[in-house]
Design brief:
This protein is of the alpha+beta class and 226 residues long. Helices cover 27% and strands 26% of the residues. It has 5 helices and 10 strands. The chain has a 7-stranded mixed beta sheet with strand order 1-2-6-10-9-8-7, with helices on both faces. Strands 4-3-5 form a 3-stranded mixed beta sheet, with no helix packed on it. Strand 1, helix 2 and strand 2 form a beta-alpha-beta unit. Helix 4 runs antiparallel to helix 5. The radius of gyration is 17 Å and the shape is globular. The chain starts with 7 loop residues before the first helix and ends with a helix.
């Protein structure tokens, strides 16, 4: 008999999450507070799940495994994020996706969830002509840059509280890549960071959002991992 929250028949009856796109730049602290409040209400059933797409002003965020030695030049505010992972950068030109999904109903498997988020972003990038992939031992989204190197184009960082997810992913559409030089991104000094713009891909934010929306149903289906 499936464990509670892992019955595929129940998952098939779950309504799609609310889809929200916030224009402009949302301060990181503001977004963090709003995300945590919404996740708490999702956990109690008072509000529906949410996929929230936004951008931040330049900021470095520190995950629970952040090593101070990897903060090289804090030219922007440094904010504890509460998610897993190390230091990362957020800023204009980067699509942030915060996911408040109820794994009590979709399946209590955090590894499956992270794998699914990676697959969703890879599928969305494929829709706009970018071949991306997972790299064994390196969480995140990778591609080949113009110099032929494996380069990170997207980051994954999640937290789960009361089996509701927080945080999510970031994808580099056209950020200022020099801003990543203030940290060792995700603790991986030997790999560069890239973006759609640096790859010569002219996809804009709205087009990428449409690709995410198109591939969302497939991602939600992956949360039915056994």
């Amino acid at each position: 008999m499936p464990a509670p929250g892992n019955d595929p028949d129940l998952r098939n009856e779950i309504a799609p999450p609310e889809w929200r796109v916030t224009p402009g730049l949302t301060p990181y602290d503001t977004a963090l507070s709003a995300m945590e409040a919404r996740a708490a209400r999702v956990a109690t059933g008072d509000e529906p799940e949410l996929v929230w797409l936004l951008q931040h002003p330049p900021v470095y965020t520190a995950g629970t495994s952040a090593d101070p030695a990897e903060l090289l030049a804090p030219r922007f505010p440094v904010v504890p994020a509460g998610r897993g992972g190390r230091y990362t950068y957020h800023g204009p030109g980067q699509r942030i996706g915060y996911l408040m999904l109820d794994l009590n109903r979709r399946g209590r498997d955090v590894r499956c969830f992270v794998h699914g988020v990676e697959g969703w972003v890879i599928a969305a990038l494929g829709q706009v002509g970018v071949t991306a992939f997972r790299a064994p031992g390196r969480v995140g989204i990778w591609t080949i840059d113009p110099a032929g190197r494996e380069a990170k184009i997207g980051a994954i960082g999640v937290r789960v509280r009361r089996w509701v997810t927080l945080h999510g992913f970031s994808v580099n559409i056209a950020p200022d890549l020099s801003h990543f030089a203030g940290i060792v991104p995700c603790g991986l000094p030997d790999y560069p960071v890239t973006s759609l713009s640096a790859l010569g891909n002219p996809t804009d934010m709205e087009t990428f959002d449409a690709a995410l929306a198109l591939t969302l149903p497939g991602f939600l289906q992956t949360l039915s991992c056994p």
